[in-house]
Amino acid sequence: MPTATSSALPQPPPAIRDNQHIYSDYFDEEFARELDENILQLLDRVWFRSRLVGFEDFPQRNNPDRPLIFASNHSGMAFPWDAMVALAHLMRSLPKPDDLPRPLSAPLLSKSTLMNPFLVRNFWKKCGCVDATTLNFETMMYYQEHNLMLYPEGVPGIGKGFNRKYQLQRLATSMLRLGIQHRTDIVPFYTINGEYLNPYAYSWDWINRLTKKIGIPFLPLGPILLLVLLQPWCFYMAFPANLTFVLGKRIKPYELTSKAHDELSRDEYLDLSEQVRQLMQTEMNAAVQQHGQQPYRWPELWQRMKENRRYFPFFLPFAWPALFTEFERQFVKEGRRGIKLNLTSPGAWLRMIWRNPFTISFFIPILGWLPIAIRGYRGNTIRK
What we know:
Layout: H1 14-18, H2 29-48, E1 51-53, E2 69-72, H3 81-93, E3 101-105, H4 108-111, H5 123-126, E4 130-131, H6 134-140, E5 147-150, H7 155-158, H8 173-182, E6 186-192, H9 205-212, H10 223-230, E7 244-247, H11 266-291, H12 298-307, H13 320-333, H14 348-355, H15 369-377
Parallel strand pairs: 1-7, 2-5, 2-6, 3-4, 3-5
Antiparallel strand pairs: 6-7
């Protein structure tokens, strides 16, 4: 994958040139596509039933030399299935691969294996995520292969709780600064029903500050919490919310001010950020009214389960640990390509557990967390 910009373009500063290795350090497009073909398509077809609204004319770059910045709301207190489903749906839908955005993700997701789905090591980075640090964001603005995607509420957006559902938290000013500096547009899209992936889970900031110290960005206090102790796989589970992604109107941050990016004060950036937050909040409220009144669509879910019954139990969350672990075993540990997981033969789920005995830990009440924690925190960089 190319790591240098065209010679006709202004060259980035030395620190950014030295950091351009992040473009391809972990990203494995084959991993992402085979993961989608073997796992995510089934989960999306049956469990999440995602829809793209308004993406028919996919936005193109206003500045051909700089990526668009796609920005969405976070789903409170839920493991980031919404981002996985959105990117997988876009990947299989877009005619031009370079239209697909690459995500800037919260660094806590990659600092410990525990925050990777079912302990699949470097899962987020292999799927194309880049840690959302200031330097990395600035570096990715010179990236030519794909657009960018971020959740500008950051970790506070994930941890806002069901008590603040669909309430946009303060947006990162870096999104505005880089949009102005590089004269590239921000394209909002709204994740509707994602709040119901983990419903009725509430949040208190002082508890979240404590859990961040052990690499968990938030602790959802709700119905799932007790289940997490009794069945560790519930840490990663999601309710069958009918995820809907609604494209918003372009925002041109460089038209919101007459000043250059380096002439704006911190307070001025905060004011611009609040303007953009209010614009996005108004659009999201309308999207919730139109698409968020039936977050689960139970009859549709039941119909999809009947239509895909030959894949039972793999579309149900308790089978996901074996599914992800078996995929990692074949793709990463054995180096296979062109994987076709056998999901329809009798006893396929039990055979996966037999081949991956660690999976049993996800079903052992309380004590199962001991081996999961050992593996999940081995080699972590939480304190760095």
